[in-house]
Amino acid sequence: MKNTIKTAAVIALSLFAAACAKVTTDEPSNEGQELHFIVNTAENAVVKSFLENNNDGTYTPKWSKGDELAIFMGTISDKTKPSGVLSNTNETGPVAKFVGTVAAVEGTTSFKSFAPASAFAKGYGRGNVGITLSENQKPSSLTIDQSCDILVAKEASYTADAANNVVVNDLFFKRVFSVVKIALTGPAALSGEKVQKFSLTAPEGTVLAGRAAIDLSTAAINKWNISKNAVTATYTTDAPVFGSDTPGSSNVVWLVVNPGTIASDAKLTFSGETAAYTFSKEVTLSNDLIFPESQLAVINLTLADEHCTKKTTPSVVPVYASVAELIAAGKPTKDATKVTVTLTDEEIIRFHTLKDGTVAGAIIKVGTQEVEIFCKGTPSNWKIGGTISGTLTNCDWMLFYSTWELCPADYSELTYKAPMSTCATPVITIAEGGVVSIACETPGATIHYTVGDTPADPTEADAVFSAVTLTDGQTIKAIAVAEGFKPSAVALKKYVVGGSALVDKTATIKFGANNVEITKEKNPVTANDDQKNSWTITTTGTDVYFATQNDCAQVGSSNNPATSITFTSTLPEDAEVTSISAKFGGYKGTAGDITLKVGETSVGTGKLNAKNDVTVTSTSTAVGNKVTITVTGIAKGVKCYNIQVKYKTAN
Question: What is the phi-psi region of residue 452: left when phi exceeds 0, alpha when psi lies from -120 to 50, beta otherwise?
Fold first, then answer.
């Protein structure tokens, strides 16, 4: 038979106290044994797992299949946990059949229990258990959040048969908290809007939710150890709708709160949001507001236009097809903005290393602009020279001091390719009459070229070299490409009838007080050598120490070391480098590797010395006009004295 709870019903505690399970007096099982329990509830108008709205002002309390009952045997202490948890095997309906195993306790013939078991927080002793009434509830449009409706059963005796089976019938429960029904009425603007979130906030000191110490013997709340004065209902599906055709049904918010009274003249705030609006209304109580224990309290809330605010349209995140396009849009600001940008085979030129050695970013260079992909947890298999691709969605784009940064939450949107070797730079030979021949050391390489008085650098889209004859004053440029290799550096040669004399030049750049200073404020540093070739000096590391000496620049120290320092220069286009030398010094404990390159080809290496200055000189030559000197793996500090490059040029 269907039982109902009417909104004005009074449920007496005497029912809970008087109605108990059937009692027998056989001896209990020994401690440690598993008892197989079956507990059948009474068809009791106080019981529930949820309240089914009958749409006639009445509500039928029902259990749900899978509801769980926590069983406690023996003395409850601060270390108590449930002796067992039983699960309802009945389909949805007014009675439940809880089934499961329970650990027996020596000398015990009775048990205490409550549902739902998931609300158990901890034991408090003296018969009290901590039960959580969540401040964040997830009701539906028709009923309360089942996990918040605490039902405590009358202590029941039991008898186990020879097979350790226990059957308990007619178990009655008492609802501990109060159910609140808030019927919503709104202005025309809210008609059809589904509630996404709804909050009830009471004055400070009011307890609506939290963690209560509940005496399972009396089903009474002894105290609130954690208290909250606000309760929020959140909906993802099956939400209340403003302007419902069935008032009192699908326009209702259901909450479970601590029973009590909020005195007249107190201020309550009702607030929430829909997809298109937020709303908030403060109400001053003209009478006491009572949340009755075990019963239903009804609040009718009417909102006007003045209580509603239309949400602003979220800002559109700009989308960039490439990092180059993002850079072209302008310099980022110190305040991060959201962007979506696609990276395509962007080469890593170095890493951002924190003081503790953690790598927290990869730096790429697009055109002349460096951009750091800043995020902790940079994958350990990423290497300099490798490439990264992918689309960073809703990524922070910002200026951190002088660094342009993309700051994703993680690296999951990026894919990595290991570094590829670079094709050897082509060697161009011009014979009598301007006949050109081009060779490359990389097997299978294809040569692409451009020709003119001032030709552009060639790409893979330019013509493939077969045979070319130059006229007086023309220049040819060439690159080599091959599968599995990066394109080579650009090689070039100018044809002058009768030949043109190449001049030997020596370019020197010195560092120190009276020469080029390397400082934190100027990182990267740009300066000219004595032949007016431009150099860029870039230092990496966190809080690197810089100092200017009379004859050198100090980069890094014991407490504030540098990670690497790179010196690059592009000589005249026709330059033929004949030698490179670089002088560095160290301090006690200093270490580091020095590499000299022409184009992408290493022409000399060396190591920093902790005691003596060292001059590293090239031991081979390569084609190209780009010179790079790197000092990597630095431990502590390095003294930078000078760099000297010898080359031939007609310019």
Answer: left
pLDDT in tens, 635-651: 788 999 999 999 988 77
3-state secondary structure of 354: coil
Decide if pLDDT at 411 tops 80: yes
Q: How far apart are CA 103 and CA 518, in angstroms?
A: 74
Alpha-carbon distance of 629 to 285, in angstroms, equals: 78
For residues 171-188, average pLDDT: 91
State the pLDDT at residue 628.
Answer: 95
**Alpha carbons 39 and 164: distance in angstroms, whole number:** 14
Distance CA 421, CA 389 (A): 18
User: What are 367-400's pLDDT values in tens digits?
Assistant: 889 999 999 889 989 998 899 999 999 999 999 9
Q: Is 582 exposed, middle or buried (0-12, 13-18, 19+ CB in 10 A)?
A: buried
Q: Return the amino acid letter for 587.
A: Y
Helix spans in 494-647 (H): none
Least confident interval from 27-31, 216-220, 324-328, 593-597:
27-31
- As given in the structure block, the two tokens for residue 473 are 């004053």
Whether residue 263 is predicted with pLDDT greater than 60 in this model: the reply is yes
Out of 99-108, 229-238, 439-448, which region has the weakest mean confidence (pLDDT)? 99-108
97 contacts 38 by C-beta, under 8 angstroms: yes
C-alpha span between 68 and 88 (Å, rounded): 6
Both tokens of residue 317?
Answer: 């995140």
Looking at 6-138, list the stretches that DSSP marks H as alpha helix, in order from N- to C-terminal side: 13-18
Q: Strand, coil or helix: what is 328?
A: helix
Give the angle subtended at the CA of 148 by the CAs of 294 and 251, to the nearest 5°: 85
What are the DSSP E strand ranges found in 367-458?
Answer: 369-374, 387-400, 403-407, 414-417, 421-422, 427-430, 435-439, 446-452
Beta strand 230-234 with 136-137: parallel, antiparallel or unpaired? parallel
End-to-end CA separation in angstroms for the chain: 106
Give residue 637's identity as a one-letter amino acid code: G
Give yes or no for a contact between 49 and 175, defined as CB atoms under 8 angstroms apart: no
Say how far residue 636 (Cα) sits from the centre of its chain: 34
C-alpha–C-alpha distance, residues 247 and 239, integer Å? 14
- Residues 6+ away with beta carbon under 8 Å from 397: 326, 332, 336, 337, 338, 339, 341, 405, 406, 407
Looking at residue 248, its amino acid is G
For tokens 């009675």, the residue is 95
Q: Which residues of 482-496 are buried (b: 16+ CB within 10 A; e: fewer)?
A: beebbbbbbbbbbbe
Residues 594-630 as b or e (16 or more Cβ within 10 Å = b): bbbbbbbbbbbebbbeeeeebebebeeebbbbbbbbb
- Cα 379 from Cα 631, distance rounded (Å): 23
Is residue 141 within 8 A of residue 94, CB to CB? The reply is no
Q: Which is it for the CA torsion 181, 186, 191, 197, positive or negative?
A: negative
Rounded distance between C-alpha atoms, residue 386 and residue 96, angstroms: 63
Rg value, the chain, Cα: 40
* Distance (Å, whole) CA 153 – CA 370: 69
- Per-residue pLDDT of 514-530, as tens digits, reads 899 998 888 889 999 99
